[in-house]
Structures are given as structure tokens and as C-alpha cells.
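Handoff note, outgoing to incoming analyst
You'll be picking up this chain. Sequence as last confirmed:
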Amino acid sequence: MPVSSQAIDPYALDRDGLAALLATFDQPRYRADQVAGWLVRGVDDPAQMTDLPTGLREQLAERFAPTRPELVAHRVADDGHTHKLLLRFPDGEAIETVLMLYPRRATVCISTQAGCAMGCPFCATGQAGFRRQLTAGEVVRQVVAAQHRHRQSLAHPGQGLQHGGGDAREPPVGVAQDDLRIGGHGAGEGVRRCTGRQNPTTPTRIR
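Most recent structure output, in case you need it:
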């Protein structure tokens, strides 16, 4: 099915954004809860959202952009407590997401940019240079990529905050923490804390 020229990444929408999109199809607000429930579980193909009417699934398929990242590599360290995920987006940009498991909590360290403009000599990401900001949906998709594990805190490296990182991060954090809450539909623990760091520590390859 062809994708509309106005295609959007559903993970870039908060609950109100989903409701607004569905309202254009004359759908009631509770449909946003249904769609959000699927998105939290990592399902972004409307054809698999079986509690939605067939006609609505077809309409959403025309609007949802094919932006799911490819899992290029998954490496495990620290006796299974650290999982490094190398994700590649459809435009070829690759970023790293790290899942760190602790006895009573877990942390997902997400990227907000592809590359970094800081140029720190000790950092592989800084040496690679800044390429682009990640979209809100691309940031949230990193959380979804790690959602098979319980997460209770969400950390996002600054990745060059002086290069305009703030505007890119705030919307997706709102989606992840408040609107597409992990666990809000039976998928595990909720995101309880969001913290930011200014070290550009996310390389474009797993080492």
C-alpha cells in the first residue's frame, strides 16, 4: 500500500497527537489508546493492530511512515547485564542504544543525535562529527527497541547540547514517559525518571 506524502512516524506523536490524527478519520478518542497500546509493544504495522476496524487500519497504513530501525548488532557484556544495540535508520544513519540491567532497576541510554559536534579527541562519536538530529520518533523507537526488558529510568546523553540538542529531546521524552508509557498497557515497568548528561558518549558503532 502506498504511503502518503504526509506520512508521519507514529512514535513522534504523544497521546493527544494520536487522538488528533484519528480525529481526521472521524474516530473516537479511545482509538488513540488502542493504537498507543500497540506502539508500546513495538507494533507499528497497522495491519497487525487487530482490535482496530479494517478500514481504519488501511487509513493508518497510508499515513504511517516506514521508519523502523534495523537491528544491526546486539552485543552483551557484564554477564548479561549490559546490552548494546546498534540500530540503523532507513536513511543509513546508525546509532547505539545501551540497556543496563541492575538488581532492582534498569536504564536505557539513548542517542539524540547521529554523531556529535563537540569533537572530543577521546571520543569516537566526536571524531566522526555531527551528521543530524534524530527525530522525536527515532528517539522513542530506541526505548521500544529495548522494551523486552523492564526499565525504570531513562537517560539520554547530551550528544552536543550546544548544537541544539534540547529541542530534539523534550518531545520524545514526553512521549516515552507520559503518553506511550512503558507498562501502561501491560508491557512492564513504567519510565520513572529521565536524566540528561552532557557527555557525547554514543558511538556510531559498537566496540
